[in-house]
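Incident log, structure service

09:12 report received: a user says their structure output differs between two submissions of the same chain.
09:20 pulled the input from the user's history:
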Amino acid sequence: MNPPPEPELVARDWTMKLVGQPSVTNSPGEAAFGPWLRGELQARPAFAEQPQQVWLEPTLHDAGRTRASVCALARGSGSSTVLLTGHYDVVGVTNYGDLAAQAFSPGELATRLAASLSPEHDGPLLADLESGNFMFGRGSLDMKSGLAAGLAVLEAWTASGNAGNLLFAAVPDEEENSHGMRSLVRQLPEIERRYGLEIVAAVSLDAEVDPAGDGRGQAVFLGSVGKVLPSMLLLGRPAHAGAPFDGLSAALLLAEVIQRVELHPDFIDPHLAEPGPPAALLQLSDLKDQYDVTTPEALWCTFNVLLRARTPEDVLEQLRGAVQAGLASAMTELEARARASGMLMQAAAVQVLTYAQVLTLAQARGGQAALDRLSALAAAGAALDTPRLCQQLTLAAAREANLSGPAAILGFGSLPYPVAQLGQDASSAALRTAVEHAVTEVEAQTGVSVRLRPFFPGVSDMSFLGGAAATNVLRANTPAWESRMTLEESPLPTLRVPVVNAGPWGRDYHQRGERVFAPYTFGVLPQLVMAIARARLAQT
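09:34 re-ran on a clean worker, output below:
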C-alpha cells in the first residue's frame, strides 16, 4: 500500500479544489457546495469504503433556501471527539473588476494580477505576488484554506490509530447571519447520539490577517470577540427650511450623539488583556422617502460594538448615557442659535427610551391590534436586511405609540454574537493545556513561533459554539427578533463546548488581493491542528 500523501500537499490540493467552487453567500454556488464536497470526500480513500461517514445536515428554519453543513467523521477509539469546523461561503467578487471571472482560479488569477499591478500603486501586493509565498483567490484566506487544513488532518486521522474521533463540519452562511453554525449547534446533540460521540472540544479554522508580517496571524486564539449592533432612531419635529426653529431638526441632535460615541475612547471595551477598538458608526440615514424642503423628522444610525468584558446590557446603558448627554447639549446649542438668529424656539423635553419601552407604550395605546400590525410589518419585510427591518419596526412602533420628538429610541439592529472564551471549568482547562502542549510541540518540530492570543478579533462562528445564550434585554430590544432569530428560540438542545481558533493567515480578505500565506498554512497549520486534537483526546 502506498503511504498517504503529506498533509502539506493534501492541504494545498484541497485549497485549490475548494477555492474553485464559487460558493458566494445566498447564491446557487453556495447551495451546490454541500453536495459537491460530500461527493469529493466519499471518493477519497479515507471514506471510499465507508461513505456513510460523510453526510449533509440541512440548515434549519432557512427561509426556503436549500443549503447544508457537510459533516465527515474520522473514527478512532472511544467516544471522545474533537470538532473541526469552519464556513465555506464567501463574499462576492465584484471588487475584482475585470478579473472577476478568474477570482475562483488561483493560478490564472495570479497570472492576470501580475499583468495588472504597478509598483507605484500596488507595491505590497506585487511583492507578495512575486514572492511565490501566497495563494490568491476569493476564499483562499477566508476561509477555504482553513477548511483544507482541517480536511488534511481528517484524512490523516483515519490512518493514524489515534485515540478518539474527529468530526469535521463545513457550514454555510457565516458571512451574513451565521445561519449554518446556528443550525449546526442545534443539530450536534442528535449527531452525538446517532454516532455515539461525546464532543469534548472544538477547533475553529478561521483566518486572521497579518499586514505587517510580524507573526500576529500565526496564533491560536483562546476565544472570540462578541458583537452587538446598538441602534438609535432619533425623532425631531419637521419644519420648513425657511423657518427651521418652528420645528426641531433631528440632524443637530444626532451630530451631538455621534460626537460622544463614534470612535470615542469611552466606548473601548475595558478588557485588560486586549481592549480592542471603540464603537464605529456603520449606518446613518434619514427616513424621508423623497426630497422636499422640510427638515428631517427621523434619523437612524447603528454602531458596531465588539465585546470582550462588556455585556449587551452594559453597551445599552452606556449608549443611553451618551445619548442623554448629547441631546441635552444639542438642545442648549439650538436654543443659543435661535437667540443669535433673532428667532424663537419652543422649549421641549427630550425623551430617551428603549425599544421595549416604546413597544409597551404602543400596546397601551393600541392594544393587541397594534402588536399584530407590527408583526405583519415584520412578516412583509422578508426582502429587507435585518438592520433595515429593525429600522422600519422601530419607526412603526413609535407611530403606534404616538411618540413625538424630540426623542431617541435605543435598541439593537442585528443578530448578536456572544463572547466566546475558555472558562474555569475542567473542559476548558483541558483544552487550554492541550493547546499549550501542541504549540510547544509544533514550534520544536518546525521552528515556527505560534502565539497564544485571548480573542479572535473578528466576529466568527466561535460565538455560537462557546458563547452564552441571548439575554432577555437583547430579545426585548431587537425589533426583528421574533421574525429573524427563530433559531435562538428553537426548543432543540444546543451544544456548547470549549472552542479555540487555529487557522491560516494572509492579507486583504474580502478584497481583490485576498491571499493566504502558503508556508504557514500548508506546512505548519495541519500539524498544529493535529497536535491540538491529539493532545486533547489523549486526556480522555
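09:41 both user submissions now match this output. Likely a transient worker issue. Closing.
09:42 reviewer note: The domain at 7-225+418-467+487-538 is CATH 3.40.630.10 (Aminopeptidase). The chain is about 40% helix and 20% strand.
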